[in-house]
Amino acid sequence: MFKVIHEKHLTPALLSNMFDGVRSADQAQRRVLIFDRDGRFVTSTDPAFRTGNASVADRDYFRDASALSSTDLHIGVPVKSRVSGLTVLPMSKRIDSPDASFDGVVVQGIDLEKFGSLYTSLSPGPSDVLGIVTDNGTVVARSGQDGSGMPIGAVDPALSVEIILETQLVSAIFEERTIAAVPSRVVFQRISGTPLVVFAARGNEALMAEHGRLVERSWALVVLALMVVTFPIALAARYKAREVGQRHKLEVRIEHERERARRDPLTGVANRHVFDERVAASYRTLDADNIPFVVAFVDVDRFKQLNDARGHAVGDAALRKIAQTLNEGIRSTDVVARLGGDEFGVLLSGANALAARQVLDQRAKALHAAVASEEWPITFSIGVVTFWTAPPAEHHVVDIADGVMYAVKKAGRNNIKFAVYRDRRLIDQEKVAPPRIAA
């Protein structure tokens, strides 16, 4: 920016006026607003406008940002701000999350009434017209023939038609134009990195009297516009992108820690807290919608002897193998959990007695095969209950399944027993005890 100022050899007086304009620009456009991915207002750089429930979800610039992946600067049309209540020219940029999905917009609203003072600060002559237009020729702001600032909407239609013809020019160019009946020389210059074109016009008589001053003024306006238009929003977008990245990292870390807190650290399956949560949810669904569920309580027989004979490392390996074997044969909507020590729980959501028997018979056989392959001297006592009606309280669910498992232990261990809970009665699923797990 300052390299351009130096290269153009702007006079001290013009530089002084230009920097006065930059100071005025702070009041015109340094308010930057941030809206989330749903268009809801998040915050503002202006302390006076940091709360509220404004939404820009229906604004064209928000729709464009959410639909298109481009993060280019978007120059909108003048609107009444829903945050400040002022008539502003919205300049916005899309905010991307780290995975490149749409995460909101950062919007800089230029106060059009104050923006006119930027042109007055350049002390235009009586025949000078200074202004900025967009790519499609829409006049953003300009000064009047008498040197006074004029906001958008108070533009001479003839001037805007003339400018539209030249807005596709990329580099600076001079053209003869008749502006407001005054033969003039007009210079156009693209503002790099934006869809904006700056123009300056001076009457031919004034230009002959003061050769070269038009070029100087136009470059002063280019520099001023670059400082005013591009820097604050680029800075805000960069700050927001950094903030979004930091927030994403924090969210990932929190989610990781939350997931760790829900897993048994040794086996990797759910812990007792998660199991109790899911059982409570199934209990409520059964109570409200009559959708049954199944709970199995699995206890490892003679696990202490394995630990004592083979060591804790082997015991830990056995627990991991048991958890893996149980988990391999169930749906993603079901839950396997280590409930503590050598006890595991299995929840089959929305399952009936027949489906539960098929699944858990297969798991029991798979468990026996897994421990046999390792020659571990352990077996399993498994109690399975299908809940057709809800017991008096949520915590009774696990107690009932636990009781069925202990009945297996008392009967000699190494077995699986199926029961149905209905109308506050626990009924054996079959009169004859199921056969022991085949060796």
Question: What report would you give on this structure?
Answer:
The protein is α+β, with helices and mostly antiparallel strands and 439 residues long. It has two domains: 1-260, PAS domain (Beta-Lactamase), CATH 3.30.450.20; 272-428, Reverse transcriptase/Diguanylate cyclase domain (Alpha-Beta Plaits). It contains twelve helices and 18 strands. Strands 1, 2, 3, 4, 5 and 6 form a six-stranded antiparallel sheet that branches. A hairpin with a 5-residue loop joins β11 and β12. It starts with a helix and ends in an 11-residue tail after the last strand.
Task: Name a few traits of the molecule.
six-stranded antiparallel sheet; 12 helices; Alpha-Beta Plaits; 2 domains; disordered N terminus; alpha+beta; 439 residues; 42% helix; single chain; Beta-Lactamase
Strand residue percentage? 25-35%
Query: What would the average pLDDT be, to the nearest integer?
Result: 74
Helix content: 40-55%
Strand pairing plus helix content: what structural class?
A: alpha+beta
List the uncertain runs.
1-10, 21-29, 145-171, 431-436
Looking at the structure, what is the overall shape?
elongated
Q: What number of domains? A: 2
Total DSSP E strands: 18
CATH superfamily of the largest domain: PAS domain
Distance between the termini: 83 Å
Mind telling me which CATH architecture of the largest domain this is?
2-Layer Sandwich
